[in-house]
Amino acid sequence: MLTVTETWLLFGSHIHQDFLLDHPDVLSGIKEVYTFLSKPEQDELYQILLEINNGEYSTGFKHKFWRKSGADFFVVGKGINALFAEALSAIQQLRQ
Questions:
Q1: If we measure between CA atoms, which residue out of 5, 12, 16 comes closest to residue 44?
Q2: Which of 85, 86, 66, 90 is nearest to 76 (CA)?
Q3: How far apart are CA 42 and CA 60, in angstroms?
Q4: Three-class SS of residue 71?
């Protein structure tokens, strides 16, 4: 079961109200936040994204988990599924 960690909170703290003013799109912003994390934090965030995308978690759970990050960026409906899947894909590209 996923739990909220310091890394998850740190990640979320970088996603603020003006996030899309600072980045051309959400995924490029997520990539930038990822690069600011230490290697152990990057590894932990990657594991979180792998787990949340494993098919075991409902859309409702994903929304709650996202909100617990403290991110000041609202995601509507099933868009949360796409956000997590695309975030994982973006970070996998950086890890290659």
A1: 5
A2: 66
A3: 25
A4: coil
Length of the chain: 96
Q: What is the DSSP letter of 69?
A: T
pLDDT at 20: 65
DSSP state of 55: S
Nearest-angstrom CA–CA distance, 10 and 29: 14
Phi, psi of 70 (to 5 degrees): 85, 0
Q: pLDDT, tens digit, for every residue of 42-70?
A: 999 999 999 999 999 999 999 999 999 99
Q: Are 46 and 95 in contact (CB under 8 A)?
A: yes
Give per-residue pLDDT as tens, 11-21.
999 887 777 67
Q: Determine how many CB atoms are found less than 10 A away from the CB of residue 61.
A: 14
Two tokens at 19?
Answer: 């996030």
Longest dimension (CA), the chain: 34
